[in-house]
Amino acid sequence: MINLNNNQNKINSELFNNLVNLLVQELLKIQSKKMTDYQIIFNIFNQFQFIETDWSVKELIDSTYYIDQFKNEFLYSHFLKRSEYEKLDKDKLTSLATEIVTGLFAKKIEARTSENLKNYKPNLDDFKSMVNEVLICESRFYKSLIKVHDITSYGAYEYGVVQLQLANYKMTLTRMLSSDYNWKIKTKAFIQFYLIEKRFKFKSA
After folding, report:
1. Under 8 Å between Cβ of 50 and 38
2. Which residues contact 16 (CB under 8 A, 6 or more apart)?
3. Directed axis angle between helix 90-110 and helix 9-31, to 10°?
4. What predicted TM-score, i.e. pTM, was given to this entire model?
5. CB of 111 within 8 A of CB of 75?
6. Rounded distance, CA 168 to CA 183, Å?
7. Tens digits of per-residue pLDDT, 95-131?
8. What phi, psi does 79 have (nearest 5°)?
9. 173-196 tens-digit pLDDT
10. Are 159 and 150 in contact (CB under 8 A)?
11. How confident is the model at residue 17 (pLDDT cuts 50, 70, 90)?
12. How far is CA 119 from the centre of its chain?
């Protein structure tokens, strides 16, 4: 989290610049793909993910029981419209990323709580519970699928919840893969995520 002490200014500045640079790289990637609207989600571990959903992240979190871990780790989100980034060059993307990360830092300073002390390494029991939440929400999404005249439609809310859960899963997985857990645990977690994500993308296509 952000530390306001003078001797931490340099560290905070480096973190800010690193996040801006990382966000610019991600914005360049999505520019090269199909244009769409995204929500950029940040957590207290300085990670972020892009998700596509018609619902705001706050609405999804407030209305869904199965996002307990994310409620503890969620810090900030920014709704990114296609028109904001589709024609920008790198310099303007840097300005946009700086604006977004500035909002994140404002939230970090505002949220100086015991959450600062949370361990970067995920707890395995919490991780298993999170995966179960993902599977439950995924199952509800599949139940919302309706096929009419060979066209499949689905509930936007259920879709958004799974998107949010997968974003949470991916951020937690990143922390797990960089931890000192053994390779069996890391491999199982990675393969499980890969299969769930591929299945979800296939069925929601």
Report:
1. yes
2. 101, 105
3. 130
4. 0.83
5. yes
6. 21
7. 999 999 999 988 887 765 545 556 688 889 989 999 9
8. -85, 120
9. 999 999 999 999 999 999 999 999
10. no
11. very high
12. 18
